[in-house]
Each structure stands twice: as C-alpha cells, then as structure tokens.
Amino acid sequence: MEDFKGLLKRLSEAFGPPGFEDEVREIVVEEMGPYVDELFVDRWGNVFGIKRGETEYRVMLAAHMDEIGLIVDHVDKNGFLRVKPMGGWNEVTLVGQRVVVMARDGKRLKGVIGSRPPHVTPPGKEREAPEMKDLFVDIGASSAEEVERLGVGVGSVVVLDREFAELADGVVTGKAFDDRAGLAAMLYALRLLGETSVTVYAVATVQEEIGLRGASVAAERVNPHAAIALDTTIAADVPGISEREYVTKLGAGPAIKVMDGGRGGLFVAHPRLRDFLTDVAKRKGIPYQFEVLYGGTTDAMAIAFRREGVPAATISIPTRYVHSPVEVLKLDDAINAARLLASALEEMRPQFIESLLERRLK
Ligand code: CO
Ligand code: ZN
Question: Quick one: pLDDT band at residue 2, thresholds 50, 70, 90?
C-alpha cells in the first residue's frame, strides 16, 4: 500500500496538461519497464507496454496521462496571462489557486489565479461566480515585455500547483487524480500480474481530456480483441447531494462501468466483458459497485468503435471533487481496482475472448 501511495503521489504532482505529458511519461516508462517485455512510445506520445501471454489475443488497457489545464491565449500590457480551458473546469474551483506555468525552455514558473478583493466588489456581486473569460494568471510580471523575457506567451500551458496529502483513514487528496489514479492502478496491476493467456497491451494515453485523442490512435495500432480503460469516476457522496446522484461512493470498491457519456453520446460497456469483471470481483472477494454516469466518459468509448469494434469496459476509481484542486479518493478503492484488473487479465482464457468476438451464424 505504501508503494501505491508513493506512486500515486509522484504521478499526481507531475506536470502534464493535454499534449504536454512528458513529465508523466518519464515516470510511466520507468515504472512500466521492469514489468513488460516490450516498451515503446508512438508519434503522439502514447506509451505502450507489451506483456506477452500464451496466445496472440490482445487485450488493451488504457489510462490517460494528461490532466486538465489552461492555455494562455493572450498576455495583457500589465503582464497578466489570460487563459482558455483545456478540459472541463468549474471556474469556481480555480479562483485563489496557485498554478505552475511552463516557460519555453521547459522551466516551471509559479503563478496565482487572482480575484477581486471583497473591498472593491460592488455590493450584491460578492457571490457571483467568475467565468473563464474573466480569470487571469498573475506570475508576478509587470508588463507584456517582462512576460516575454520569462519565456511565457500565447500557447504556454498551465496546471494547478498542488501537493499530494493524506487525510484520515487511507483517504488522500491532490490534483490530477483524474487520471493519475487510473494510471497508478494500471501500473500497479502490471506488478501484480502473473502468467496470462492473453497478450496485454498497457497503454498510457495522451490528450484524453480534450477528446480521447491518444486512445483513438493507440487502438488503431493495437487492434485489440478486448479493452479495459482505467479512470476515475464521480463520487458525489457529499452533503447537499441526494443518494440517487452519488454515482459512486468512496470506499465501496472500484466501480464497474455499465454506461457513461454525455452530450457527445452515450456509451454502453460491453455486457459480457462487464459481467466477466463482476464475476472475477465476486470470486476474488474484491468489493465493487456498478456505475451509470451521465456527464463524462473514458478512453473506452474511443477504443470501442474502432475498426470492426472492440468489446470495451471500464474499471473506475470513485473520486470526489473530480476536476478540482482537491480531488479525494480512498487508496483501497484504487488498489482494489488494480487487483481486479490483474485478476481479470489472469483469468481471461481464449474461449472467453472468442465469446466476445463475432460469430458466423450460417
Ligand atoms: Co477528466
Ligand atoms: Zn479521466
């Protein structure tokens, strides 16, 4: 467990907005190396770790390396950075945060997201939530020229500056648990994994938060027979929210996805693969919960509809306050996600994979 916590801390604190996952990729390459037979990085930066099994049946795993971030689209004459979102932020959670800005030479600069002091806020407006267009990043520069001298400008990327911390009872908090927790679970599962019939392609993907980009090309390359994504999901088990809207509960085990999606369309996890994961969890005594989520999806959706279709499912880690600086999860849920994944891979026989594939009826 200590191992897992340390791994999650390192991944969580790494810098990695969509398209700029280098720091996370370094950790992934280092962690995956000893546990796979082959390791390579594709043109967009997806990391593939292949662990050969007794058969050529390919099972693809996917966990994304990127975190939601901001991108500078304007620098004003007083040296403030104006930003656009990379991924789905709730602006309320950004105000008052410290951030890290990447300069052109790769150096990291500190900044803050400022706000209007109550003293100079018109009466009645104190509680108005800001919009993204009103937010700005203050890196301490006093002119556009100084910002330029620091190597920052249009296109510079920004993430939250937030240290990992442990709360009570094996519960931890930090930034980017979406999806460094899923990534940590995938890496941990590779450590736990024994002999398999199937050949495992563990893929750490890029640019998930801005449209499941990395998983799309990775799936084309692997052309898997089945796929399992690892991601966080909503645990809205907090005051003011009715039980029906919890989606999942912290501490009740990893979630086996039944359906998710949102405005872009819904995604139903492959029923036989979902049932298989459920049976494995039951047999191994791993706690689990089912998940129906409206308003978000995972790499599984992008993988599922490639080529002739890929039976795909998702194991999720219940996380409170997703896409905020204070994401919260229970380590046991994440470790159990890794156990469930490793057990499922070990138990996947060729007959089962064949049962997922197309059948000639006549
Ligand atoms: Co996300
Ligand atoms: Zn995610």
Answer: low
Ligand approaching nearest to the C-alpha of 299: 2
End-to-end CA distance of the chain: 52
**Residues with a known catalytic role:** 208
Distance 236 CA to ligand 2 centre (A): 16
Considering only residues 270 and 360, tell me which one the structure prediction assigns the higher pLDDT.
270
In whole angstroms, what is the distance from residue 161 CA to residue 151 CA?
A: 19
31 C-alpha vs ligand 2 centroid, how far in Å? 20
Q: Which residue has the tokens 């108005």?
A: 128
Q: Among the three residues 137, 160, 183, which one is the final residue of a domain in this structure?
A: 160
Q: pLDDT by residue (tens digit) across 195-238?
A: 999 999 999 999 999 999 999 999 999 999 999 999 999 999 99
What whole-number distance in Å separates Cα of residue 50 and Cα of residue 40? 9
Task: Please give the distance, rounded to the nearest whole angstrom, from the Cα atom of residue 261 to the centre of ligand 1.
Answer: 12
Total number of domains constituting the chain: 2
| Ion ligand 2 contact residues with beta carbon within 5 A | 178-179, 231
Query: 84 with 71: CB under 8 angstroms?
Result: yes
Nearest-angstrom CA–CA distance, 298 and 234:
12
Partners of 227 in the beta sheet?
Answer: 60, 312
For residues 74-79, average pLDDT: 98
User: Is residue 289 located within the same domain as residue 323?
Assistant: yes
Centre of ligand 2 to C-alpha 125, Å, is 34
What CATH number does residue 101 fall under?
2.40.30.40
Output the domain CATH number for residue 54.
Answer: 3.40.630.10
Percent of the chain with pLDDT over 90: 91
- Choosing from 126, 160, 194, the residue where a domain stops is 160
The pairs formed by 213-217 with CB atoms below 8 angstroms and a separation of 24 or more are: 213/18, 213/44, 214/44, 214/45, 214/46, 214/64, 214/65, 214/66, 214/299, 215/46, 215/62, 215/64, 215/299, 215/302, 215/303, 216/302, 216/303, 216/306, 217/42, 217/43, 217/44, 217/46
The ligand placed nearest to the CA atom of residue 63 is 2
| Alpha carbon of 232 to ligand 2 centroid (Å) | 6
